[in-house]
Design a protein that fits this description.
Length: 295
Amino acid sequence: VLAHYQLAKDLQEATMRAVQRIDNARNSKGTEIQKFAASIQQKAQSNGYLTEASYNADMQKLQKMQQDAENYLANLSRNTENGALHTDVRFNPSKAVFNDTIWTIDPAVIAIEGKEIDVDGFRAWRDRQSIAIGGRASENPTDTITVALDDINLDYVFETLDIPTAMFGGNVTGKLYATKVLTSDPVAYTPGLSVKSLTYNNSLLGDAILRSEWHNDRKSVSILADILQRNERHSYVDGEIFVTADSLDMAFDADRLEIGFLRHYMSAFASDVKGYASGKARLWGSFKLIDMTGD
């Protein structure tokens, strides 16, 4: 799986370099033409042309430069398109190990051509859990990659991410969507994931509906969660996980929420914490050192 992924990545990078060469050539030719056109204008304004014939000669030269540039860029683009390989990366039925767990990989095809990647039928599963990926990744905002999660265990995910101070658990089902994937400003979101038996620091909170979105400017994932507790009351979570900064900032609005999740933060002076709490709290800091305040 990793070898196939690396191949797809290498091919995509090669295509991006070819496109960058075209952009660089276009900018270079454009600068050269603009510079010569400016010199003609300056010479004409300062009466530098002694005869009409000399002016016409420079204008003809400018037109030839423009035509030559168009032909050069057209040929370069044609050569790039002809040289762009259509590559199919095929996944045979196989097994893969992630975090000491064996997953089954179903047959799938990833087709790569130019600046487009089509994913057809990719699915990894174990027991009742599965993740399926399909769609097209490109620069086009109308092309979408869909990731379908079915009963994915959050404990497993956060153990893999190694965030001991913020351990979410439960089983997630729903879809995530991504567009403009092959740009510097990708869009990724989920309108709603269903989380069965959501836990935080191994303490049960309830069943939750979770909305999330990637914020490229802040390199963060926002999380909005509506939690239906065992006592039929609702509590809410609103916050962000800052991926590149290894930090988070979460706000809790609790209505008789079980407070077992505080046990981790009070372990220095309390062996156990039980009960219910209502009010607002903020949890923030790095993945290794978390602060919490509340009212």
